Amino acid sequence: MSTAPMFRALLAGAITVSTLPLSAQVPDAAPLPVGRTLDGSLTRDLPTLNEKGRFRVFRVDAKAGQRYSIIMRADAFDSYVSVARQVGGLTDYLASDDDGAGNSNARLRWTPAQAGTYYVIAQSLKAEGLGEFTLKFDTLPTTIITPPRAVALGTPLPGVLAETDPSVDGNGSFYDLYRITARRGQRLVIAMESKEFDSVVGFGHMVGDSLVVDETDDDGGGDNNARLRVTVKEDGVYVIRAQGIDASQLGAYTMTVTERVTTNTAPVSLTTNVSVTGELTDSDETADDNSYFDTYRFTGRAGERVTITMRSSTLDSYLVIGRMVNGEFSQIAYDDDGADGNDSKLEQTLDEAGEYVIRANCVGAGKTGSYRILLERAAAAGARPAATPAPRTRRP
Predict the structure, then answer these.
(1) Residue 147 and residue 20: Cα distance in Å, rounded?
(2) Does the pLDDT value for residue 259 go beyond 70?
(3) 116 forms bridges with which residues in the sheet?
(4) Which of 112, 154, 326, 383 is most buried, judging by how many CB atoms fall within 10 Å of its CB?
């Protein structure tokens, strides 16, 4: 008989609930020795627990502050492992894991705050899960805390994520720290590459003994590689955190930090009805949201109606039209998806004669890729503009 309505799943923190089926197994819980692998099975006569599948309970004796690993493997079902303790007839669920050992196998890393007897619950994630499993309870090496490594611009540094590294609160992923001295306005590209795991890179600063991560990236470098582009806000020392996407990510990687140098090129003149091919790259200027843009220009007449179209198979196009006023770009109108899909089409009736500026931009910071831009003209004095007027606070 299922007693699932009596429970609630616990993913983080300690939640105390009354648990009759778990208590029924506790007196007969088999000991789970450190370093040994035990065989077990989930059968139809077992109860279910916490709105999941059937389970068995094992007893462990743990030391305060010791790091432990609990690995549950099964071929026939999706493993789910939890650790709990009994306090006055109630059960405190302390930690749990589903797929930490890869595929459908569970791996829970756990450090008890107090010494004593605890209970490991080996369970199926789904109600229909039945079959054989193995369970191993073992110690983990002591965490080694090292100061952040200094990283120099343009010099790749090899690194390894290991179980002796500290881990991120919440998902338990291991990490290494790096430090770099940067100046205000400096544009950095932080690349973390690995063939062994899914990389995640963060950029931030220390507040006391704590790291405050301001920006992160997961797959910006393609595949499982991270590539984070940042613009430094103030002079100072900054910290880079290199980690995997979750607690199962271990192995070798390379960390490289480079400076992105902006090339300020003169605006390209657009010829009517001539399609121009362009490319947004790391060396282009950036808007307020750190998206790249190229600049084009054309001379128009008062009352003239122009249509600018930007198409790309790799970018979400974004067009802006404006004028230069006292050396500053003054935005008039913009368009995002006016040409359907991710292509832009900006139609505008010019208020006055003179030179106009077009910014070929994209949606998304750090996006690069090729595109085509086309200028068309039609005399339509007095026609209503189709482009969306925008406040000065809109980007770029």
Answers:
(1) 48
(2) yes
(3) 62
(4) 112
